[in-house]
Design goal:
It is a single chain. With 361 residues, the chain is of the alpha/beta class. It has two domains: 235 residues, TIM Barrel; 49 residues, no CATH class. The chain is 39% helix and 22% strand. The chain has 15 helices and 17 strands. A nine-stranded mixed sheet has the order 9-10-8-7-6-5-4-1-11, sandwiched between helices. β4, α2 and β5 form a beta-alpha-beta unit. The longest helix has 17 residues. The chain starts with 8 loop residues before the first strand and ends with a helix. Bound molecules: iron/sulfur cluster.
Length: 361
């Protein structure tokens, strides 16, 4: 028997949204209630089960798109097929769906962790971002989630229209009231077309100050800054993401999903029609496969590992590092070396992109 890789993670992409937010770069299309997404996903998982040993799966992440378009039955059937040794099942929820979601049923179906995409409580900013909910929707959804789930996370976008230190503090204050075990802060990044659509944004200097301020507020409130965008209390990390940052294998399921197994990265068809046709023809819906060469693997190791507070084992990537640059950033206080790991300092996180590019060159 061929030796099977140990695969611990599955990502399931839900490709539908009710409308398109003008800043979004994720793959999603308008919701089509007649599209047989669940049966196609079940078929894809069954085919993957024939190909790979899925008995070691520990973490599943349902991302999108808008996974909260579907109800608990949808997720129960998928989770039942994958198996029952799973310790973490995360799902992204949009606040406008809070009213119709039965969170208890979702928990009974096997979901263990909710990630709520709040972004901000400021309604004029939400409108400009194309988000379809208001402050009350968020508050109602938070109440339902915190009643039924011990493990949940909120997202806050930094650099949104009208963002300021006052607005940020107001938002974080509301976040902290319900004691979320986990908070993510993402900086809004836009291409030139999106920049023309979304106006009234703070400049880059203010965005950097806001990120720093938010990070300080969360750390003052005993959140551990464990990844560039992520903060957790009592080690309630997102374990799926930790495995991805550690370059562990993951299976990608659903239209437009990406997976990586044994340094082969595969991309599912993002055309819903092609995805369906492939599965109906009993073929996995893979559009292309790229093999990562050694240099690409090490660079990815560096890029992903340096996002975390633990950094990356220097021995693993030493021959790909520009040691002159490492020394320079070390002396300037942006990099640290601890227990043989190279890692960014809090100030280094602010310049993640340029530092990683320079030391990996
Ligand atoms: S809801 Fe999320 S995935 Fe959908 S368009 Fe908006 S940002 Fe993108």
């Amino acid at each position: 028997m061929e030796l099977q890789p140990i695969i611990r993670n599955i990502y399931v992409h839900i490709p539908f949204c009710r409308s398109r937010c003008p800043y979004c770069d994720f793959f999603s299309v308008k919701f089509d209630k007649n599209y047989p997404l669940k049966s196609l996903i079940l078929k894809e998982i069954s085919m993957d089960k024939e190909k790979w040993d899925l008995s070691n799966i520990k973490n599943i992440y349902f991302g999108g798109g808008t996974p909260s378009i579907y109800n608990a039955d949808f997720y129960r059937d998928i989770l039942d097929l994958i198996g029952n040794n799973i310790s973490e099942v995360s799902i992204e929820i949009n606040p406008e769906d809070g009213k119709h979601i039965d969170f208890k049923a979702l928990k009974d179906a096997g979901v263990t962790r909710i990630s709520l995409g709040i972004q901000t409580f400021q309604e004029r900013s939400l409108n400009l971002l194309g988000r379809n909910y208001n402050k009350n929707d968020i508050i109602d959804t938070i109440e339902k989630i915190s009643n039924d789930f011990g493990n949940f996370s909120y997202d806050r976008l930094i650099g949104i229209p009208f963002d300021s230190e006052r607005v940020l503090k107001e938002d974080l204050d509301l976040f902290l009231r319900s004691k979320p075990p986990h908070i993510s802060l993402y900086i809004l990044t836009l291409n030139s077309t999106q920049k023309n659509i979304i106006k009234n944004r703070p400049d880059d200097n203010l965005v950097a100050r806001l990120y720093k301020k938010a990070s300080e507020i969360l750390q003052d409130n005993e959140y551990e800054h464990y990844e560039i965008s992520n903060f957790a209390k009592e080690k309630k990390y997102c374990n799926y993401n930790i495995d991805v940052w550690n370059c562990k294998d993951y299976i990608g399921i659903g239209p437009g999903a990406v997976g990586t197994i044994e340094n082969k990265r595969y991309f599912n068809f993002s055309s819903l029609k092609r995805y369906e046709q492939q599965l109906n023809a009993n073929e996995l819906p893979i559009e292309k496969i790229e093999e990562l060469n050694e240099k690409e693997q090490k660079f990815e190791n560096l890029m992903l590992g340096m996002r975390t507070k633990w950094g990356v084992n220097i021995k693993k990537i030493r021959k790909f590092l520009n040691m002159k640059k490492v020394n320079k950033f070390y002396k300037e206080g942006y990099l640290n070396i601890e227990n043989g790991n190279l890692k960014l300092t809090e100030n280094g996180f602010l310049f993640y992109n340029s530092i990683v590019t320079e030391v990996g060159g």
